[in-house]
Amino acid sequence: MSRPSRAESLRRVLQDIMYYKSGVAGLLLITLLVALSIYTVIALPVDRAIYLWRSSEIWLDNPRTAAPEWVQFFVGRELPKTVVLDSRAAKLGVAKSSTPIFGTNMKKILIEFSFEYSYDDFPSEVNVFLNAKAAKQLPVLKVIWVKPSGDAITLIETAMSGPNMSLYVTASEHVLRNMVGYVTAKFGFQPSDRCTQLRLLFGQYTPDALRTGDMVIEKGRYRLIIDATVFDEQDDLDAKLVVYGLVHGIAGTDHLRRPLEIALLWGAPVALAFGLTASLVTSLVQMIIATIGAYYGGLLDSLIQRITEIYMVLPFLPFLIMISVFYQVNIWVILVVVIVLSIFGGGIKSTRALVMQIKEYPYIEAARTYGASNMRIIFLYIIPKILPPIVPGLISAVPGFVFLEAALAFLGLGDPLLPTWGKVINDAFENGAVYKGYYYWVLEPSALLILTGIAFALFGFALDRIVNPRLREL
Amino acid sequence: MVPASLKGFLKYSLIRGSILFLTVVAAIYLTIVIANMGGKVDEIVLSELRMAITQRVNMDPQYKNLPAPEREKLIEAMLENEKKRLGLDTPFFVRSLIYLKDAITLDLGRALYMTSDSGSRLVKNIILERLPATVLLFTTVTVINFFIHLFLGLYLSRHYGSFFDKLTVALAPTSVIPGWFYGILLILIFYTWLHVLPPGGFVDVPPPEEPVAYALSVLKHMILPMAAWIISGFFLGVYGNRTFFLIFSTEDYVEAAKAKGLPPRLIETRYILRPTLPPIVTSFALTLIGSWGGAIITETVFNWPGLGLVTYEAISRFDTPVIVGITVIYAYLLAATVFILDIIYGLLDPRIKVRFG
Amino acid sequence: MSPVLSVRNLRLYFRTRKGVVRAVDGVSFDLDKGETLAIVGESGCGKTSLARAIIRLLPRNVHTYDGQVLVDGVDVMKLSEEGFRRQVRWRKIAMVFQGAQNSLNPVLKVGFQVAEPLIIHMGLSKEEALIEAKRYLRMVGIHESFADRYPFELSGGMKQRAVIAMALVTNPEVIILDEPTSALDVITQANIMNLLKRIKNELGISYLFITHDVPLTSELADRVAVMYAGQIVELSDADSFYVQPRHPYAEKLMASVPTLRTEKKLEYIPGTPPSLINPPPGCRFHPRCPLAFERCTREVPPPYEYKPGNYAACWLVHEGKR
User: Fold this and answer.
1) Is A303 in the B-facing interface, judged by CB distances under 8 Å?
2) Is B189 found in the same domain as B82?
3) Chain A touched by B278 (CB under 8 Å)
4) Is the CB of B188 less than 8 angstroms away from the CB of A442?
5) What is the pLDDT of residues A343-368, one digit of tens each?
6) How many A-B residue pairs are in contact by the CB < 8 A criterion?
7) Residue B46: what pLDDT?
8) How does pLDDT run across C63-109, given as a tens digit for each residue?
9) For domain C3-91+171-260, is the CATH number 3.40.50.300?
10) What was the pLDDT predicted at B33?
11) Is 70 exceeded by the pLDDT of residue B2?
12) Binding partners of A (≥3 Cβ pairs within 8 A)
């Protein structure tokens, strides 16, 4: 009977893999993750990703800690998305006019923003960004808020403090005072302390609501009017109104208004590269060390054994944390340290036992007799025999390394530049996601971590059942 | 009849003990070198000292009128004093050996910055104060897990192919997710959403005075971290033991025992369990060791005032004596566990007793 | 005198990924007191499965298990698992396994393991049982100091003897020996065979001797049964068998065994053993049988008593052509 050809053995291995459906599922998930990583690396190169992740101005139009848009389906209400109206962009709802004042150099500039608000919930924030081009004196302006009910409230009257001025309407004490003043004048009593700027801007003015502070959203057409005076006929004023929603995008935003999908996407290649590299290198180096020790025996073997025992006694995580804290750490340094701390690990003992067994096989003796060098025996005879049992372990170790990197990031010790899944969870925790209920912020990276872990675990376990004959029928 | 094997056993214990001790020494020295970054930490400490002293001198009205060079000399003198006090005037290599000797004898010195809750600066006290909390949590979980996995694994090996068996095999991969991660999810569910359990800490604030209420409060705070580690290890642990028992129950001597007409219970204990004990005990010891190692992250997640949290604090404050002290304790603990393991092996596996006799 | 063991139409099928394996497919024979029946055949013909079927050591994937096994006239197939364990295992039927190396529990002392059946089945105390165990150890040629040793301290031959002692200890009526010497060197093999002969003569125990080594059986066997593809194709007295087997397969088997004194051209059997999942129709040997004719391919030949107490399952023998 002839030995099966390489192609036949491969086909049989594939057949075996197909038999374990969970293994196939794992493999498919891994392929998905790899595809995602490749797409991310191409579509969003690392430099650009880091740049995006570190900048704050780019995201100024995003709401803070907003949930992803699809959350609406679970909540049942229509949650507000961000509305941006810019006087420089001609659009429905933006009107700008400029009228010179007769007899002077001054001009009156009128900017009117209007939008339909039909969401079921209050927005999160309202900001107005002003940019003036002034030859000498900066413009003075009046900002008026017109509600669907017809109430027109002067939010603020002021001169601009600089050519670029930001009005944080919903955080401004000044605005609050003006609105409270309006309500008091109109209704004859002061609204409750619970009426924040946001409530007063968008809430229905009923006496009960104003007294208790439980205000309901007022749907309809809102207008923001900026009535400005500039002091030179060449001067100009532009404004941008941003009404920040409660939801944003496919993955939501974090405390720095950054869209989470950047970190979620980039987490994939980082996790995969880290996990696979660490696992591969560690397994291969361990295999070589164990084989050399077991094959040559004697002093070398004892030395390796003793080093392995020292490694077992060393606390892995504290060392890793120590080094991360003391040195400049980027992800590559962490990777190298993790590998160095793992090479003399426990896998060596089991591989060594296996090699001791194989060493005694007659065909090894035969090879030695015909003059094969030790290197040749090790690499051509022994290693091919011990490789199959190592592969499942290799795959199953990947999740461990992925979670290790996540753990470091979670403790705040990871690579400070790269957006990774662990870092997102760290951000979430440090910004009170647990207390304020920002579930999406923790759950999205967690789900991806879990997916990655389980993908490799499923595949690794199936491989283990194939390679280990005693487990086959089990 | 016993002396020969007893002598062999003692000889074996002695040899293993000595080797382990040497291993501990090597590990501790490595820690000292790394924790001091080969002396770099000293530089950091020195520069911080210099800054602190300089500031103190500059702000002190006493020295306000001193001309600059005089002030410099004063600062240097005070620096020298501090250096002597902290022992930083001898070269690092010599100091490292002194640290080594102290560490081995468990004279762990004083912390640089940290203090224990009772106000002591002694590293030993800082560690001893927090050690019980860690042991309480992690040893309890490991022991609970051990027995759950053992009995369920045995049960499943007897009911091979049943629904629960297939379920366990299918869900085994869920154990790849570490306990601290499940901890995060559990906090989200049981605190953020349901508000029934605390998100961390050791005991309610303010702690109840009456001892029973106090104990119950601690227990309440232990629920989530324990649940996290029980869930994490569950399916793989049961699967592993069950596979183990299945493999061992196909050994020839088990078949022979069955043919001999021995009752099934007896076969289970004497022919399956007994020979399997060494690997099971090994995995228990390894899990125990692993649980202490994984404590750092879990205690950070749950704000559990144990050794792991102290480790994290010490590392972020560069408090080298504490770091070394913790590592020493850890190394000894590990070595002791391995040693006990070897002794148990010696008792259980007759080959060892005979070989060394 | 009624036979001590009677097997009627014993069947044992396994379920595997590739189909149902018919390992034991309708086996019948009798074993008298003090008689040795040798069961010979190639690897994979079902001999070991037969042994396990008799002592009810079934694997997890059993598909079919039926037939009759009469011990002292009582059909033990009808007994519950517990009943079988208490009444039959080791008390009536004991077994010496293939590869005794692993039949002994590595963490228990040898003497204790030999004594164990006495403690369990006869209710002896540990001390009494150990005394008996040592007696049997002596009987098989092992010095009683070895009772305090562990299995790894014994050589292969000694372990085999210990396992035989373990089988004798409860004075069973039948001992099934499954390849008791195949893992041993020739000299130890000879010693063990002598031991078995001595015990047979002294104690009058019936043996069911299973092996693929045909010449080995000639020392002990009173009768020989040949198994092929899960069935017994010939059952003859030793004298008839070794001189002139009737079934073509048995004949080929004997022809492939070298003899010491005469010049003999060794023959071999062409082809490969049949699949036990899809055995050939009709006589299972017909694809490899040089004498096969048309009837062989269609009908299964039943055992034909060509001489009192001697059977062969072959159409040629039926039709008197052999």
Assistant:
1) no
2) no
3) no
4) yes
5) 887 778 878 888 887 877 888 888 88
6) 130
7) 73
8) 999 999 999 888 888 888 888 888 888 889 999 988 777 889 888 89
9) yes
10) 77
11) no
12) B
Same structural domain for residues B50 and B196?
Answer: no
Round the CA-based radius of gyration of chain A to a whole number and report it. Answer: 33
The confidence score (pLDDT) of residue B357 equals 47
Domain extent listing, chain C: 3-91+171-260, 99-170
Closest-CA distance, B261 to chain C, in angstroms, reads 5
Q: Which residue of A has its CA nearest to B23?
A: A310
* A323–chain B Cβ distance below 8 A for any pair: yes
A181-203 pLDDT per residue, tens = 999 999 888 888 888 899 999 99
Q: Which two tokens stand for residue B340?
A: 């006990």
B243 contacts chain A (CB < 8 A): yes
Q: What is the mean pLDDT of residues A24-43?
A: 91
> 3-class secondary structure for C273-312?
CCCCCCCCCCCCCHHHCCCCCHHHHHCCCCCEEEECCEEE
Q: What percent of chain B has pLDDT over 90?
A: 11
**Residue B181 sits in the same domain as residue B78:** no
Residue B196 pLDDT > 70: yes
Whether chain B has a CB inside 8 Å of the CB on A322: the answer is yes
Average pLDDT score over residue span C15-37: 89
CB atoms within 10 A of CB A176: 17
How many domains, in total, are found in chain B? Answer: 2
**Which of A318, A403, A474 is nearest residue B178 as measured by Cβ atoms?**
A403
Would you call A314 and B178 a contact, using CB atoms and an 8 Å cutoff? no
d(CA A313, CA C123) in angstroms, rounded, equals 50
Residue B256 lies in a domain: yes
Tokens of A216: 């309901």
**Is residue B264 included in any domain, yes or no?**
yes
Between CA C234 and CA C238 the distance in angstroms is 12
**Domain of residue B51, residue span:** 16-96
ipTM comes to 0.83
Instruction: Tell me what the mean pLDDT of segment A30-43 comes to.
Output: 91
Q: Which pLDDT value is given to residue B43?
A: 67
Instruction: For residues C210-236, give the mean pLDDT.
Output: 89
Determine whether C202 is exposed, middle or buried from the number of CB atoms within 10 Å of its CB (0-12, 13-18, 19+). exposed
Q: Are B1 and B353 in contact (CB under 8 A)?
A: no
Among B77, B96, B115, identify where a domain stops. B96
One domain for residues B301 and B176: yes
